[in-house]
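Exercise 4. Each item below gives a protein and its sequence. For each, produce the structure-token representation.

Item: Alcohol dehydrogenase 1 (Cyphomyrmex costatus).
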Amino acid sequence: MLAFDYMGKHKGGKGGVIVNIASIAALHPFYITPMYCASKFAVLGFSQSLANMYDKTGVRIVIMCVTVTALVANINSKICDSVLAVIGNANDSKYPIQTIDHVALAMLDLIQKGKNGAAWVSEDGQPPYAVDFPHYSKRSLPV
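Answer:
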């Protein structure tokens, strides 16, 4: 929130960009890391909520959702024992590891081109892409 005090037009600033880092876990829950997923869902929701203040602040909020990097090497040591007891070995990732350099380039792209409230995905050394979040009423299903 401090960034709004310094950058926000409502406080005499010029506006700006805040990039929050989430994860693919904010978009697709992984049962092996429920607490991590919850924290990344929170980053996404928090960021998109702040994005609603753009008209008053001039501060764009964008979110980068990253897939696997070297940070998750030996993930078994980062999973709580009760989950690990159920799943066994979690080191068999179906996602290829991408380099930090690739993520950094995707973030530069996001800063330059990302629309306010946008969530982009960086994965597998491919160009980043935006994720659509239709209004919840557009996702309704009959019960």
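Check: The first strand starts at residue 16 and ends at 21.
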